[in-house]
Amino acid sequence: QVHVVESGGGPVQAGGSLRLACAASGRTFNTYTMGWFRQAPGKEREFVVTLSSNGGYTYYADSVQGRFTVSRDNAKNTVYLQMNSLKPEDTAVYFCAARSRGSFSGTTYAAIRDYDYWGQGTQVTVSS
Q1: pLDDT by residue (tens digit) across 30-42?
Q2: What three-state secondary structure class fits 109?
Q3: Which residue among 54, 57, 58, 91 has its CA within the 20 to 30 Å range from the CA of 33?
């Protein structure tokens, strides 16, 4: 069992920044593909970004490309999501997910079903 815990959410004004963190348990964290998703009120959960196990491959949703940056520290079993130039439409609960199954290099894992473990989410609220 892998436990995933997000932190770092909160209120922020439009144009501001937040840094989310995602801590995951497991001695093989450095083999997990990690992903961030978000869910706004009344909407379905949507893909934000995926990050390969060694951090060498990333893929962003068009809506956050150029504003968000994902990274990981395998020594700390932690993934980060730096969010800049935030907009009111970024308001959502942000979820971190871990894929413990094998992954193919260079493959984009952007579907909910691609991930095995999920955190409880952290709320991000961007005010205009």
Answers
A1: 999 999 999 999 9
A2: coil
A3: 91
